Amino acid sequence: MTDRERVQTDEAKGPPETDPRIAGEKHPVAKMIGIGLLASLVGIAITLLIDWFPEDAAGSASQIDTLYDVLLICSVPVFVLVMTIAIYSVVRFRAKPGDMGDGAPIHGNTRLEVIWVTIPFIMVTALAIYGWVVLDDLEAKEANAMRVNVTGQQFTWTFEYPSEELQARELVLPVDRPVEFRIRTKDVLHSFWVPQFRLKSDAVPGLTTELRLTPNKEGSYEVVCAELCGLGHAAMRQFVRVVPTGEFDSWVSKQKEAAGGGGGGGEPAEEQGAEEGAAGAPGEQIFTSAGCAGCHALAAAGSDADVGPNLGQLSRADANAEFIRRSIVEPDADIAQGFSADVMPENFGEQLSDEELDALVKYLLEAQE
Ligand code: CUA
């Protein structure tokens, strides 16, 4: 009999009733399903026992954690079932050494195909609806929300409280008060993320993105940039402090006093610069609000970042106004030893007015150790 004739006879007979390799076994499929169910239960128990998230500090966190648990409960059995069938089949139906024959020809199994299309379809649709309901809830506007404008830039975050007419490098929020963040970037993509609040939003050039949440637990949490944005990306971390309302109010007045009060030169600060930005603010505030502290160490400003050179320890030859000014407006004109060009944004100086630039240069000169 030729191979072709043999195939034709096999096809005529149809697939064998029972595969000879499992012929001696009682209920092989039931056994496989049993193993799969047991493994699923163990898998679900393990994934639910794992503490996936840090503590939650916002009203939205528990909803997101529950959604995550439901996703795990639905996806673990699917994964375990597929893997059980695959591993079982590989072990149970493997070819004997020397067996070069083809497997039995199979033309499909309609009932099985309907089942494995319908069940995942129902599961994915239900999860999509559930996810949408949660998202809709998270994005709902709250009547008494406090707005905070968040600006990302290489490599720092700055925060503006429009209702308080205040700009700050530190994010401070009153507990239990809804917040609406408006997120922007001055340069490349960043992503505003506080793991304890669970929510995250990209800062996209040309767009303003929004994020709403209500911090509900006092404490200090990290604000993280979650989008690779350049050499200092990993250092783009600040803190958010969630404090009682009274403490927030006194923080606001203290910040305003510092911004409006004593500058370096003793000259009265300009009355509330109409432009956004820290017009008339002392050099130290420009140093922090313009983002210098995101990359440069400066003992006087309490910054210890090391993406760029330490600005408190300029060499004697470099510690002059002309050099400092040029290094701000033309960052690549002179590259300090051990650092590379193209790290500091080329247009960094453009965000500063002439007065701000003067104040910053003066401050850096005075801040030499
Ligand atoms: Cu900004 Cu990463």
Written account of the structure:
With 369 residues, this protein is an alpha+beta fold. Helix content is 38%, strand content 16%. It is built from eight helices and twelve strands. The protein has helices at residues 3-13, 28-49, 61-92, 110-138, 245-260, 283-289, 321-329, 354-366, and strands at 146-153, 156-161, 166-168, 171-174, 179-185, 190-193, 200-203, 209-213, 219-225, 237-243, 297-298, 303-304. A hairpin with a 4-residue loop joins strand 2 and strand 3. The model is unreliable at 7-16 and 262-280 (pLDDT under 50). Dinuclear copper ion binds at residues 152, 155, 190, 225, 227-229, 233, 236.
> What is the mean predicted local confidence, pLDDT?
82
Secondary-structure-based class equals alpha+beta
What gap, in angstroms, lies between the N and C termini? Answer: 96 Å
Categorize the overall geometry: elongated
Quick one: biggest sheet?
Answer: 5 strands, mixed
H-E order: HHHHEEEEEEEEEEHHEEHH
Binned strand content: 15-25%
| Tally of individual helices | 8
Main sheet strand line-up = 3-2-1-5-8
User: Which residues form runs of ≥5 with pLDDT under 50?
Assistant: 7-16, 262-280
Tell me the helix content: 25-40%
Rg to the nearest angstrom?
A: 31 Å
Tally of DSSP β-strands: 12
Give the names of the bound compounds.
Answer: dinuclear copper ion
